């Protein structure tokens, strides 16, 4: 019985990890434009981390698409993310910063989390540790590799609807 549970757990982890990928070391990101991810624009809501999530993406303008993310748990803002996907050297880069509910930043003033483009594959756009998936015009998934306090990582799925 324990072997069955372990096998199921192992298969579940392996299945989850298939939604995100990383850019191999010393590999140049592929060419892409904001047109490849312009379907992200809009107001999206979902549930994750025990609360309500909200993500707003602007249309492409000035070589970038800006976004804001908010997590609300038990009626209180838990945290925000602000960022963008921008065109740089004929490819895309996904960049973000985190903020507490009082807008005090988690990262240092000049620190930004930056994720290189890995590939564009149909309705999926893969960044280093993040995948954006168009399910339909009114539904998207975002898969993110999250670092845990113990040094391990896990893939978290966010499902959003317009």
TrEMBL record:
Looking up Pfam families in the UniProt record yields: DUF6265
Q: What is this protein called?
A: DUF6265 domain-containing protein
Q: Where is the DUF6265 domain?
A: 38-144
Q: Where is the signal peptide?
A: 1-17
Top-rank taxon: Bacteria
Keyword list, A-Z: Signal
């Amino acid at each position: 019985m324990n072997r069955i549970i372990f096998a199921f757990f192992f298969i579940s982890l392996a299945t989850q990890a298939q939604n995100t990928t990383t850019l191999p070391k010393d590999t140049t990101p592929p060419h892409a434009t904001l047109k490849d991810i312009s379907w992200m624009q809009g107001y999206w809501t979902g549930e994750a981390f025990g609360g309500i999530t909200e993500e707003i993406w602007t249309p492409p303008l000035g070589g970038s698409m800006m976004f804001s993310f908010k997590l609300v748990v038990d009626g209180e803002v838990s945290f925000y993310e602000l960022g963008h996907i921008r065109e740089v050297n004929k490819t895309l880069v996904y960049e973000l910063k985190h903020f507490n509910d009082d807008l005090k930043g988690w990262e240092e003033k000049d620190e930004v989390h930056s994720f290189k483009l890995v590939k564009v594959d149909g309705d999926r756009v893969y960044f280093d540790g993040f995948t954006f998936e168009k399910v339909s015009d009114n539904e998207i998934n975002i898969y993110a590799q999250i670092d845990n306090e113990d040094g391990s990582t896990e893939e978290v799925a966010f499902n959003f609807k317009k």
